[in-house]
Amino acid sequence: MSKKDNKFYLRTAFGLLDRDSDGHVTPAELQFMLRNLGIEVSDDLISDLIKDASKSGNGLIDENEFMQWVTKIQALQGMDVSSGGGDSEEEITKDLLAAFKVFDRDDNGYITRDELRTALEMIGEPVTDAQLNQVLALGDIDHDGRIDYEEFVKMLL
Predict the structure, then answer these.
(1) CA 106 vs CA 25, 102, 127: distances in Å
(2) Which residues constitute the domain of residue 53?
(3) How many CA atoms lie within 13 A of 134 on its CB side?
(4) Cα–Cα distance between 84 and 4 in angstroms, integer?
């Protein structure tokens, strides 16, 4: 992955973490995301993670702090963001499910038009009605007005 792509993905990840779009990730937002990834962590660990990432010491993570923190973690793991890297099928499936759960804000198994709009706006991608219709037309294979997990995966792969 190129550095430019990595930066884009980190910004996207921050936008998805920052559920209320206030420019900061709170402990509750971080814990919510980790739970959606199937990772149960204690409040103490969340507090430690926030302290590690937040250079301002305010108990929140802003976008720059988040990008520096994740880049540091990538370096510690020996991840070369300029190489392609090969995720296993299991890792890809886990990532796709986590992404789907972030879009599916009411956790009903479907991404609705409103959820799609909200998610795109959260990551700084304002979308017109025409663009939203195009994305829905692309993803909504069974034409029921919403995107289920299978449709989501087919749209992305």
Answers:
(1) 20, 9, 21
(2) 3-76
(3) 5
(4) 13
